[in-house]
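Thread: pyridoxal-5'-phosphate complex, take 2
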Amino acid sequence: MLYQRSSALFEAAKKVIPGGVNSPVRAFKSVGGKPVFVEKAKGAYLHDVDGNRLIDYISSWGPMILGHAKEEVINAIAQQAKKGTSYGMPTALETEIAELVVSLVPNIDKVRFVNSGTEACMSAVRLARGYTHREKIIKFAGCYHGHSDAFLIQAGSGAITFGAPNSPGVTQGTAKDTLLGDYNDLASVEAVFQQYPDEVAAIIIEPVAGNMGCIPPEPGFLEGLRTLCDQYGALLIFDEVMTGFRLGLGGAQERLGVNADIATYGKVVGGGLPVGAFAARTEIMQELAPDGPVYQAGTLSGNPLAMIAGLTTLQLLQANKELFTRLDGKTLQLHEGMKTLINEKGIPHQFNRFGSMLSLHFTEEKVTDFASACHADNELFKSYFHGMLERGVYLPPSAFESYFLNDALTAEDIAFTLEAFQDWLKTI
Ligand SMILES: *Cc1c(COP(=O)(O)O)cnc(C)c1O
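Output below.
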């Protein structure tokens, strides 16, 4: 495949945009090479500016669960656009999507819409702190909750629980309030609580992790976090930005049968437009401005174009509940097919799959947390990524990202993908 125009566009972009991209993973740093620039997308396919067709396994990192440019969603956006694109005043649409979300998601009474998953998580933590009158939070190494300061924290040297900034610009002061646990390791969380029994406002977690590849929670882990939160008076925040409306209409809470106190959303909830949301029971949400003292706001929050895209997407999901089973089936089919091929070749690997999330790590060791995800062979991943891209299959350009399947993918697309995989395997 040729990428001349993509290449030229990337060079031009780098002159005026840092790294040529508006979100770092798009720059292909961890796989090398140059990013592919998109011309348009329809259904399961991306069409790049050089005329290549790629089967898309990212679905815009999740939102395009129905496939790209879904007719009903596009029409709804177009109709709304004619009526104006932003008012800075309330609309009935906001209530309509809020009613739908509240009816679909367990254990919530109210929802506030924002513009991104980052904002949702950042606001959820502020709300948890305001509600509990405590300052510290616990997050897990390898979980991503957006780019707000409190989350850009890595394990520091010395005491296991003491965080350190993992980006310049994040202050030590912020870092000291973010404590770290290890995913799937309840004892690591218990140790943090024992050290700070009265100071933890909340645990925030991806109930199925998708930002270190896909890592499902081991049986009892989320239940154990729920118990610890109750025991120590902390809130449990499920970051469902990836899992919400993907693992099912009620997200991970429903699918895994564990209730969170606050849930955050993004990606699918916006149907491909910039939307995030956070939700909780009334007793917690009433702390939020203008009802309560915890401040949160947004000029474009509840934007009518974004709300109609999200509402239409959620309505289509609700009307086609079998879609989730279908999507899980396709993911299983891809997983099983790839597993057979890679086993024949005898390459050490781990597949992790949950619902329509899937990832492949090149390692012998089970991948259950950030440390084990880091042990995988990234050189082989690079070859895999580019090998598949060359053959018309677009995978996440990092071993630390999950695949997100969409409903437009056909059995033929999956067969094509497996052929590409088999073909790549011959080259190594
Ligand atoms: C994508 C993501 C976010 C951040 O959402 P943005 O819309 O990119 O700000 C937060 N949490 C999780 C789990 C995510 O996958």
